[in-house]
Amino acid sequence: MICVQPPVSLELQQPPLGQRVMVWLAAARSIFKNYQLVLALAFAIEEVNKNSDLLHNLTLGFDVYDVQFSGWTMYKNPFIWLFGKYNIPNYSCMRDNRFIAVLTGPLGMTSDQIGTLLGLYRFPQLTFGSFVHALSDHHKFPALYQMAPKDTSIATAIVSLLLHFSWSWVGLLNLQDENDLWVLAELKEEMAKNRVCVAYELVISNKSISYIGKAMAGYNEANKSSNVLIIHGNNDSLIILIMGIEQLLIKGKVCIMNAHWEFTLKRRYFMLGSLHVPLIFSHHHADVSGFTDFIKAANPSKYPEDIFLARMWFHFFNCSDAESDCVTWDNCPHDASLDWLPGHVFDMNMSGHSYNIYNAVYAVAQALHEKFLHQVEVQTMENRKGTVPFHAQLLHVLRNIQFYNPVGEQVILDEKRKLEPEYDIMNIWNFPEGLQLEVKIGKFSPYAFHGNQLSLSEDMLEWAIGSTETPHSVCSESCGSGFRKSPQEGKAACCFDCIPCPKNEIANDTDMGQCVRCADHQYANTKRNQCLRRDASFLAFGDPLGIALACMALCFSVFTAAVLGMFVKHQDTAIVKANNRTLSYILLISLIFCFLCSLLFIGRPNTATCILQQITFGVLFTVAVSTVLAKTVTVVLAFKATSPGRMMRWLLVSGAPNLIIPICTLIQVTLCGLWLGTSPPFVDTDAHSEHGHIIILCNKGSLTAFYCVLGYLGSLALASFTVAFLARNLPDTFNEAKFLTFSMLVFCSVWVTFLPVYHSAKGKVMVAVEAFSILASGAGLLGCIFVPKCYILLMQNRNTLHGFRDKSHSRIN
């Protein structure tokens, strides 16, 4: 606050007054730091008085009063000023004076206490300190207006800075001040929205020295948790706190401070050699031209009535006589100026509070100007009985005042219509130690597009001495691609473990909460951060396994055709006739197609091949196995027909066993028809059997129907095996029951083995197992039944009844 030592009325030299209008300023006790506020007030009033477009017949002046923070003394000067030294409030009219407005600040306590009194008399009060939420209550303070902008964007600005540096684990240090509660609430909400966690919060009372003990109690938690500390609260209280506990709490930390740290305190503190990195948000305002020159020109000779300025000259420039303590200006350096003083003693740049005073003076001047433009009656200024006091009329004008100040920025007193403030981000350069240079390193503008609101020059930022790297402040390091976050039980959301993504799932960004499963036609790479397209895979003719199976199928088909040709060529021989050549032809033809049907399992599947695979396999093998059953029954009937019994002879002569083939086949066709009618096979894909491949194969559709077809085929094979096994010991050389028994044994063994192997196989191997089982079972039938006969056919001397008889006689002899 503006400081005058001790309570005194200050009056800078003013130009001749036509009608004098004065601005009263309430100030608080300090030494030198707030004198810039007095000079800012004088500068603004002189600038207004020189402006020919404002207040044509009036000039402004001011008095500075000190406010002491103890009981009656706080109200003493305001009472004297309002009512006169010996008048009693509410019992006498206000003394005749020309004061029309009051400027109070910068502490909210000053504005609050004095505002209660001024509000009773509707006396315009403009505060130039930081925006205080409680002072915006116009029911309690009907005559008070705050010049400072409301910090509606400070929470967004701070969180934007945290996100820029990826600081997600921060501490909070604030005072138990009701004015700051709404800012902290917004800050916490904005942090939670952007997944920034509060590592710890130190809420300290500023009413007693006990807050230092409370702060020290949080020492362990503060130093182990976070490298970033957000400090928000009253300036004077916090500066004492920080200077007292810096070694414990904030040594080496990045401290983000709110916009209201007083420039002189700030500089004096950092001159001592701060041990942390400060990033300070201050309200942005345009440079006021002429202000620095005005300060340089200010000296006791120019303002002889300003005893405070004289005290500064006496204190800093050694103006006393060597033989006495009298101040003689002749002993002062003639070119002495306030810009000679160190920056931590007096700052030449206009502070935020000084800029608010500058705008407050112009607001009063604009209101006066507008009032006189509307030809207000002059007698109201004379405070005649029965008229409304001039200051109350001025208050009405101030409510709606809106103008552009000389630097081009808009000034609005109505809180609801005020624009959101922009912020400058300041960094203190203290290297080499004692430099105390305040440098603007960035800016936050709420009016920019989202994502471009914060602009920083990181190369200008001075981190801790000896460090060039940006500090880290996270509870857990970010989970890279290929990992997902797993929250740690009982801890904040920013504390987590990194878990690798499961198979075929990816995380292609940092700190992903869940892994994303790749589509069926894609697969996850080894790093689990990208889905790659699967290559289509199937049992192709070009694969080694496909080539082997195709060659086997063709070779067996050709060999079976050769056997058929041999049987046709030797159809009149005894061996062919004795084994029922018609059934042999049917069996050989069905085996040819059985071998060829395995080719349907090779190549890219489609709907037609998927249906033909199972139906053709089921029907052809039913024909083959039922033919074997018919041959077995024929053998049994042939030997039974030699003994008496017309029925057996009739069955053999009529060819009844041959009916087994169409009947059994018709049953299988019926089962296949039901299969196709309910749930036919279809083209399917398998994305799990081979890494990086999507296997195209045929889905059986109804597994029940598939196993019914396979089971029926197995039952036929078992029946054939049983009948052949029972007839294996029947006499005669032409008995082929033994060969039929072995063929069915091989057939059944192949398909019994097929079932577990088929279920354990995956992908195209499963298709190969089925195709191989078809070839193996067909080869078993062909080899066990026809290879012995081919051997006999090739041995011409044994392919006759005489040759067999000679063999029989030789065995008897």
UniProtKB/TrEMBL annotation:
<feature type="transmembrane region" description="Helical">
    <location>
        <begin position="704"/>
        <end position="727"/>
    </location>
</feature>
<keyword id="KW-0812">Transmembrane</keyword>
<feature type="transmembrane region" description="Helical">
    <location>
        <begin position="538"/>
        <end position="564"/>
    </location>
</feature>
<dbReference type="GO" id="GO:0005886">
    <property type="term" value="C:plasma membrane"/>
</dbReference>
<keyword id="KW-0297">G-protein coupled receptor</keyword>
<feature type="transmembrane region" description="Helical">
    <location>
        <begin position="615"/>
        <end position="639"/>
    </location>
</feature>
<keyword id="KW-1003">Cell membrane</keyword>
<dbReference type="InterPro" id="IPR038550">
    <property type="entry name" value="GPCR_3_9-Cys_sf"/>
</dbReference>
<feature type="transmembrane region" description="Helical">
    <location>
        <begin position="771"/>
        <end position="794"/>
    </location>
</feature>
<dbReference type="GO" id="GO:0004930">
    <property type="term" value="F:G protein-coupled receptor activity"/>
</dbReference>
<dbReference type="Pfam" id="PF00003">
    <property type="entry name" value="7tm_3"/>
</dbReference>
<keyword id="KW-1133">Transmembrane helix</keyword>
<dbReference type="InterPro" id="IPR000337">
    <property type="entry name" value="GPCR_3"/>
</dbReference>
<keyword id="KW-0732">Signal</keyword>
<keyword id="KW-0325">Glycoprotein</keyword>
<dbReference type="InterPro" id="IPR011500">
    <property type="entry name" value="GPCR_3_9-Cys_dom"/>
</dbReference>
<dbReference type="InterPro" id="IPR017978">
    <property type="entry name" value="GPCR_3_C"/>
</dbReference>
<dbReference type="InterPro" id="IPR000068">
    <property type="entry name" value="GPCR_3_Ca_sens_rcpt-rel"/>
</dbReference>
<dbReference type="InterPro" id="IPR001828">
    <property type="entry name" value="ANF_lig-bd_rcpt"/>
</dbReference>
<keyword id="KW-0472">Membrane</keyword>
<protein>
    <submittedName>
        <fullName>Vomeronasal type-2 receptor 116-like</fullName>
    </submittedName>
</protein>
<keyword id="KW-0807">Transducer</keyword>
<feature type="transmembrane region" description="Helical">
    <location>
        <begin position="585"/>
        <end position="603"/>
    </location>
</feature>
<feature type="domain" description="G-protein coupled receptors family 3 profile">
    <location>
        <begin position="545"/>
        <end position="796"/>
    </location>
</feature>
<comment type="similarity">
    <text>Belongs to the G-protein coupled receptor 3 family.</text>
</comment>
<feature type="transmembrane region" description="Helical">
    <location>
        <begin position="651"/>
        <end position="676"/>
    </location>
</feature>
<feature type="transmembrane region" description="Helical">
    <location>
        <begin position="739"/>
        <end position="759"/>
    </location>
</feature>
<dbReference type="Pfam" id="PF01094">
    <property type="entry name" value="ANF_receptor"/>
</dbReference>
<dbReference type="Pfam" id="PF07562">
    <property type="entry name" value="NCD3G"/>
</dbReference>
<dbReference type="InterPro" id="IPR004073">
    <property type="entry name" value="GPCR_3_vmron_rcpt_2"/>
</dbReference>
<dbReference type="InterPro" id="IPR028082">
    <property type="entry name" value="Peripla_BP_I"/>
</dbReference>
<keyword id="KW-0675">Receptor</keyword>
